[in-house]
Amino acid sequence: MSSNGIDELGERSLRLQTRIPAAADRNEALDLAISAAELCMKALKLATDAGQKSDLSLRAQALLNEAERIKTTRDWRLPVSSGSTVVDPPTPQSAAKIKRLKEPRSTRELTKTEELLILRASKLNGFLFPPWKKPPDPSEFALQDGEDFFLDTSELPLSSLQLEVLDGWKRASDALPPPSWFPGGRSNLGPTMHFTRRVDLVQDAATDCSVVASLCAGTARGERGHTKILSSVIYPYDQQNLRPTISPNGKYVVRLNFNGCYRKVIIDDLLPVSKTSRVLHVIDRRNPGLLWPALIEKAYLKVRGGYDFPGSNSGTDLWILTGWIPEQVFLQSDELVPSQLWKRVHGAFTYGDVLVTMGTGKISNRAEREIGLAGEHDYAILDMKEFGDQKLLLIKNPWCEGTSWRGSIAKSTAEADGDATAQSIHELLNAHAELTPGTFWMDLNNVIQHFESIYLNWNPGLFTTREDIHFPWDLSTQQDCRGSIGCFINNPQFAVTCRKDDPVWLLLCRHLKDNTSSTPSEHGSRIVSSGEMTGFISLYAFGQQGKRVLLSDNPLERGPYVDSPQTLLKLNPTEDCTYTIVPSEQDLSPTLHTFTLSAFARSPILLAEAARKYTCQSVAKAAWTPGTAGGNAHSPSYSQNPQFGLVVTHNTSVSILLQTSDNTLNVHVKLVHGRGQRVHAVTSRDIVVDSGDYHRGCAHAELGELDAGTYTIICSTFESGQLGDFTLRVDSTVQTQLRLLPKEGAGLLRDKLNDALFRHGVNKVAAPLAPRRLCRVTITASHLDGPTSPAARRLSSSTSHSGRSVRGARSLLRATIEVGRGPRRRILIASSNGEYSDSANGVRTEAVDLNPAMLQAADMWLVLERLDGGEEEWCQVEMFCDGPGAVSVGVWRGWDD
């Protein structure tokens, strides 16, 4: 019988085998297993190729073992996947075969905005990839009389290395098997869509290791007896024999999952052919005429920009190829528990509910040669075995000339004790020579040591419910504040409502961007790879009943920041609870991005935009400049910080958020009773609410109820002199008015007076004032660590009791402007309403009008007084006046009432 006849027997056997889990009773299951084994044995008798015989013999023996198990086991029916849990899968049983689970579809009705977003996301790299509606009609692939073979709009780009060996683009009939591998006539050669020998897919002169590793993992699942999920995505497709067929007109349609939905990708069967023995596309070394892997690869690379695709990660690739949910596990994480990881993955792998690939990190050239692993390279997991405490993985390097790991597997406890399972391990490892080049067994401990990440792609059929929401995120409009660490005020936010306490998986997908470098023409356009995506994304979950949050503090769950286009967050909710879900980013390009957030569960869920807690907002922008960067509340220059007046017309809850894009700044915001005017000294009783400790990049204060009134807001950095722009935002339930107050001394001339000295035992000093015309004056005074002028320093050393001021024991201060002395003196203005102040940033009087006529009754004095002072103290005194030379100030002197 011909090879096609053997293939047909193998396919019939496989179809019977996949029906076993769905059998109505034990007898039907036993008949199916025996019939499938008999078909394999018929094919075995006809086979002449040694490799083909070996494969058929193994399959026949496995089916006979399955028949024996069904016949003798009390609980003959193996548990199906829908009965297992993703979090804690059941213990695997040998040769488990399951039926294909139904993938859930989102039932949420899209808004018009979302529909438009999905349509716009169809354009990528100069091509259109419309949303998938239904399988194409067979007539789409018919070749009419006189009609040319289908030709796509443009050829996909190749790398410089690929161009060096390119012989041209050729139809599949001339490209497979590779002409350089089979020189001479091709009358008995040609492409095929089916095979009987085990698949051995490899890459050669291509850099898409993640894609080929994905294809290897997917085909290995089918070879373990599960339904074929890769070859079923390409059309034309033979539903009776469950495999793709050769297209008469050279046109193929592939269903891929990206940019928010399954999409239709149309390709021709032209493949890049090499003039050397190198191969420019994925190839099956055992079945070199196998076509569908090369077509799927071409469709994927059309989406990603061409054959010069630099690679991504296989978790992303399998998500696009299969729609299986990607999860990245960081093997170097301190939170990783290897035994738990193995238990979770091994059980699901046995049932065919997870595809597993792995990636290495950076490895030096020397280490690559020593251990036989390639750095920053993706590998496929073909099988997983457990013998006692030993956990083994069969790993495939997708490179055609790829090396195998050169390390050794540590002895298990079973081997050390002479246990019977040791023989099974030895038999498995001794079969290493029969493995294809680049394929090897490795134990879990060595995997964790040598690999950086495991990529798990989970069967979406494990869930019964799915909800999708699609949204834009325009980062080009958020440059002033998007760098604020932990600030989520401008992030898209969503609410997920869970009816039961079943696990919910939340998948955030960043859409591939259209990177076309020129306008498409009738001859196509040059494509730039859409794989070049920079930046990091993450997901946060908060127990905020679906209300928007402002900061990243105190999430229930949060995922790591990953440079992959997808990130997964697992939530274990309580019944009838609503959570707030927030996407976060770092270093994404400042442009418009689009995303899809998908929620998967086994019970009903609702996904919607998060509700806003406040209906009104006021926003103002300002900056800390050399004249306004006053530092924290203990700084003498605190009052110089930017301040705002806030008018509240009715009682309201209020949220105050300060953001700066400079994450080196630790910032703070304070709301005080200040009547909407600048405040110069703040006591604890003045504070209405503040943001607590200084926080990098942003600060937030919130109050459940704020009385109507006029308040002052102070924005500060921790250190004085720190410069930077910032945004102040006030959210409330009623409209408020927010305005930046003029900086201290605005419109006034600043005159630094001579330093004032309190000698030992002296508590009061004064300087004469003489207004020369009508003017408006404000006085400030604050402590100094010592005199600032040379003359003052000489005075201090010659007259002071201690020779220095005592830092940390500063006295309370008061400044006044007075007319006259003794009992008849009249105080024109006093700092802090006449009280002594312990403010770290000094004291200040309100503005007062002075004129020369006041001197007719008595002399005018600027008086500085301290309370209970002892040691020498120096003070800096400044006068703000609305005109130059309007007031003359004399020398400080001791004062005695």
From TrEMBL:
Gene Ontology molecular function terms on file: calcium-dependent cysteine-type endopeptidase activity
Organism encoding this protein: Cryomyces minteri
Xref: Pfam families: Calpain_III (PF01067), PalB_C (PF25435), Peptidase_C2 (PF00648)
Family in the record: Belongs to the peptidase C2 family. PalB/RIM13 subfamily.
Listed name of the protein: Calpain catalytic domain-containing protein
A single GO BP: proteolysis
Active-site residues per Swiss-Prot or TrEMBL entry: 209, 377, 397
Keywords: Hydrolase, Protease, Thiol protease
Ranges of Low complexity composition bias in the record: 793-806
PROSITE patterns: CALPAIN_CAT (PS50203)
